[in-house]
Design goal:
Elements (H helix, E strand, L loop, with lengths): L6 E5 L6 E6 L13 H4 L7 E6 L3 E4 L5 E4 L15 H20 L7 E6 L1 H12 L6 E5 L9 H4 L8 E7 L7 H13 L3 E7 L7 H14 L2
């Protein structure tokens, strides 16, 4: 594709020694989760770099072919819909570039957490489980496991033990709670270490979840 993602970067202290690459949801952009950084890391508490990429703009079938920032195309929001495998591969290549960029700046994969909300969470799971070097952890928020049937063949042994933080709103009207639970169970069935969190919220993020994310990140990036 020969493209690189435009990103927003927030460093919590000079000379970061860990990175969190956080992917936004459909139609949002990299600014979406920028405001939560101060709730996750107090000033100079840790030297972390948060990287918030903007997804490429593409037509989305689900939304009548309207162009918006999207990590892949969505035809329908259900398990039987054809998934955009090529879109996932393209986004995976872009996220791998971001991980490589951190390595070039002195932060190895073992000090990188991949995170994402909704569509971004699906890409986070796609890339993390296929990435050839062990990552520090993954956070999959209000999302689902994409291309599950190809995972047993594609999975990278390096990340078989990667800690996965999964969270979902019980009253999510966009990606039903049951879809998150089904994904959790699929992952656990494949031997992955999923830490499950559920909250009384819709398709969003809440204060209790942010506190749990903070705790997870501080545990993964000591």
């Amino acid at each position: 594709m020969g493209m690189t993602l435009e990103t927003i970067e927030v460093e919590t202290a000079p000379k970061p020694n860990a990175a969190v690459i956080w992917l936004h949801g459909l139609g949002a952009d990299g600014h979406d989760f920028e405001p939560v950084v101060p709730q996750l890391v107090r000033r100079n508490e840790r030297a972390w770099r948060f990287v918030f990429p903007h997804a490429p703009v593409r037509p989305v079938t689900l939304n009548g072919g309207m162009s918006m920032r999207a990590w892949y195309d969505i035809v329908r929001l259900d398990r039987t819909a054809t998934e955009d495998a090529a879109g996932f591969r393209d986004s995976d290549a872009l996220i791998r570039q971001l991980i490589a960029k951190e390595a070039a700046r002195g932060i190895p994969a073992s000090r990188v957490v991949l995170a994402g909300f909704s569509q971004g969470g699906a890409v986070t799971l796609y890339t993390t489980l296929r990435y050839p070097e062990r990552l520090a952890g993954a956070m999959a928020l209000s999302c689902y496991l994409p291309l599950a049937t190809s995972l047993p063949a594609d999975r990278a042994a390096a990340n078989d033990g990667v800690p996965i933080f999964m969270a979902h709103g019980i009253s999510d009207p966009v990606l039903p709670f049951a879809m998150g639970v089904e994904s959790r169970d699929l992952l656990r069935g494949l031997g992955y270490a999923v830490e499950w969190h559920q909250y009384p919220m819709p398709h969003s993020v809440c204060e209790a979840e942010i506190a749990d994310i903070r705790e997870f990140l501080h545990r993964m990036l000591p």
